[in-house]
Amino acid sequence: MLVIPAVAFAADASRRPNIVIILGDDLGFADIGAFGSEIKTPNLDSLAGEGVRFTNFYTHATCSPTRSVLLTGVDTHLNGLGNMDEWAAPNQWGVDGYEGHLNKHVVTLPQLLKDAGYHTYMVGKWHLGKQPDQIPAARGFERDFSLLDGAGSYWNMLSFTAANPRSVFTEDGRYLTRLPKDYYATKTYTDKLIGFIDANRGDGKPFFAYVAHQAPHDPYHLPREWRNRHVGEYDKGWDAVRQARLKRQIDLGILPAGTQLSERMWFIPDPIVLAPATQAILGKKMELYAGMVENMDFHVGRLIDHLKKIGEYENTIFIVFGDNGAEGTDLFKMIAGNPGTRDYLFAAFNWSQTHPNAWGDPGSYAAYGPMWAQVSMTPFSQYKGWMAEGGIRNALIVSGPAVKRPKGSINQGLMHVADLMPTLLDIAGVNYPKTHEGREVPGLIGKSWNQVLTGQAESPRTEEDYLAWEIFGNRAVRQGDWKLRWQYKPLGKGDWELFNLAADPAERKDLAAERPDKVKALLALWDDYVRKNNVILPSRSLFETLDDVLPKRVPDDPGYPPLIYQRQFIPPKDMVADPKP
Fold first, then answer.
1. Element (H, E) at 395
2. Among residues 60, 77, 105, 127, which one is catalytic?
3. Is-catalytic flag, 63?
4. Domain spanning 13-465, CATH architecture
């Protein structure tokens, strides 16, 4: 069992640093200005300029698995998110590690920091359980204002499915009956966090804040004044925007000269063959997405400004990244034709408002699809849900007193979201326990960034260390520059593929036939990962679930996944409350 030594970054315990994690939901590798984007993100760029950017940072391929690893430092197949709750396969039901929420075997980062004298705050999307013993307040957060679902409206409690027409929110451990007046997700989350910080000012305790923004996840809802900041800019199409982003990435030093773009996916058309009206409509979707990112950056700036005003900014560590690759699946293209979902979705999202000029309003729905997701993941291949680099690799910014490297520097070390637990415990001077509340806890799989942040090392990993992933049956393993992946068709081959990421970050050339020795060596690591983490490959693919299950309207059959058919969650009556002022 791994125990992290208490060699904190800050020797003076009375001035232990505050910690702020800013998580973008479906934010892509190339969506921040400091990583090559044309989207204007001055506040995130300022954090990059004062800290360090990491270009070889990995999350998981989807949201709740990433969040589970972030908060526990334990592999998904042990912490409860071996598969997403919405898509668990029959052979995974009832198995430890596949509960669909954070299980009782793990201890969370906020629990340990709270026990060590930190205030612990959360705002934003939870997606790790709805029952009273699964919500943020039960897993270590002293204060919270949280969306428990995986997505929903930014304006109100409207959810996406007939079985769950209302999103579920909590505030300080109470289930909300309604949302605050003038609610808009990104703004309200920031307002609430600032209020939490101010309520405890002056008591001498540092704080840990988990800012799990909903933005820029679809639907693309945002105030009207944020919708027209890039009018016509994206009519030129995705190919031109990707090429421009790659050039900026090379100029910034994010990527080496000579880096190639991944191939445009075969089902995405060449934008120059499209009619001007089609180009404009598809471009407007990207305009909305850019507005979402810029609005999130604006509210990050509000938080930064407030911390400067109260004298806490210089003692605050900021960690910024996206939870997975950009979202390439348009929800309505995926399920709008399925009985049981179509009629509800048509009714729930007011189709009188889906004229492009009304996109962003309450009741509207817009998402940008695979063509723009590939732009967000420049230069990588594919997007969220897949094991290509576009599904699991993301931009990372770290700034604040823990960083001793030159300001604005760029690091290529191999990093992983599981590293956050040991790193932040190290910063706070806290040991990772062997047991918690009388139960033995799993060992950490991450590596502390202590020596990397202080400039004593370029990577927390040796050439012998490896990383591995599995979700929906798609799987991958990386050691050093080499990556082996297996994906279902149509985006995979249904067989193992091998890539050298140093020479080919866009995964354009499969080397499996040329290097059977390397395939064999990485397969041995994959087998090691399966044994250590109780990996159970699903008995049916996600596509079988979508094609064969969702069209059938049998809500009471336990063989049907809970995405569409789970009953509305009803909170206990004694835990229901109105929002706080």
1. strand 393-399
2. 127
3. yes
4. 3-Layer(aba) Sandwich (3.40)
